[in-house]
Amino acid sequence: METYRFDVVVVGAGIAGASAAAALAADRRVAVLEAEAIAGYHTTGRSAAMWIQNYGPPDARVLTRLSRAFLVNPPGGFAEQPLVSPRAILFVARAGQERELAQMLAEGEGLREASVAEARAMVPALRADYIVAAALEEHAFDIDVAALHQGFLRQARARGAVLALSSRVVGFRRSGGQWLIETETPQARFQAPIVVNAAGAWGDVVAEMAGAAKLGLQPCRRTGVIINPAPWHVADWPVVHDVAHNWYVRPEARTRLMVTPADETPVPPHDVQPEEYDIALGIHRMQEALAINVQRVERAWAGLRTFTPDRSFAIGWDGAVEGFFWCVGQGGCGIQTSPAAGRLVADLITERDPGAAAEALPRLDPRRFGSANRQTV
Known about the structure:
Elements: E1 2-5, E2 8-11, H1 15-24, E3 30-33, E4 50-51, H2 58-72, E5 84-86, E6 89-94, H3 98-107, E7 111-114, H4 116-122, E8 131-137, E9 141-143, H5 145-158, E10 162-164, E11 169-175, E12 178-183, E13 188-192, E14 194-197, H6 203-209, E15 218-227, E16 239-242, E17 248-252, E18 256-260, E19 265-266, H7 276-289, E20 299-307, E21 314-317, E22 324-328, H8 334-349, H9 361-364
Parallel strand pairs: 1-13, 2-3, 2-14, 3-10, 6-16, 14-22
Antiparallel strand pairs: 4-9, 5-9, 6-8, 7-8, 11-12, 12-13, 15-18, 15-19, 15-20, 16-17, 17-18, 21-22
Helix pairs in contact: 1-5, 1-8, 2-8
């Protein structure tokens, strides 16, 4: 058996692991171990992401804001096409939701009130008997998830990182300040003083193998479907989002709509598939608000979004296990925060000043779940 030696081993090649590896590889020897044959198979590859400032917990909003410049103007050679395209967010309220909308307007950034008439002009399918108030976030944008993810992987490899697919971790051993990491590939094992746990829904599984206490991560199923909204022309519609986060629709491929019930059904980590009930629920909620006759579902899928117990991210050193670093719990905000989150991982590991991201550190620190004092390498 051959042992491959690195400075950092990242477990997981989804958007969290890919962005962390790209940032770390600038001045560290990095390996990324991915259990599946395709990077980002369970979550990143099934995400329909946007940059929305008014989404997620406070720590996510900080990292979202700090990621904007990268997404709008990525480094040369990072991607072959723009990563983003403008797409406003229209938050709509039905009777009884006025207070929620008022609170969103009071607490949000870059939001303004929109009249019912303006909302219906933007989205003519909105039912007059449904909407009573609206708010608009005009400076949001769609994110090309595949281009962003592949850009990070390409950047990591260009900086010397190694991506090992089909390399599910099966064991850790700590000795002499080094991790020895075994995978399902019996001919190879990996060694490094630092492990970054970016395993998403499997984050607690990886932690247990390394002897770290679980954080209590909860994977949740999120369902999406694609429909034909004809005769409506939807290419220039904003995303239409229920103010209570019970459903939203988003234009796809200029002539289609993605519909989701915004479900967060707790599930164990697995290759999640859509449930008929969630598909029907998403369409029902959408049709309460929009006069769209759904003839058939063209495609349906489900992905995983994983939350910590308090729904903030966990980014930082484990409090009790030396050399074990967490980067999990992004809960549906992982794409739009990935440039800043990846950079923050590298800053903390290399002991650089995290700059403006420092304001989020108390909410991000995994020790808040009861670990002992922080350990460093």
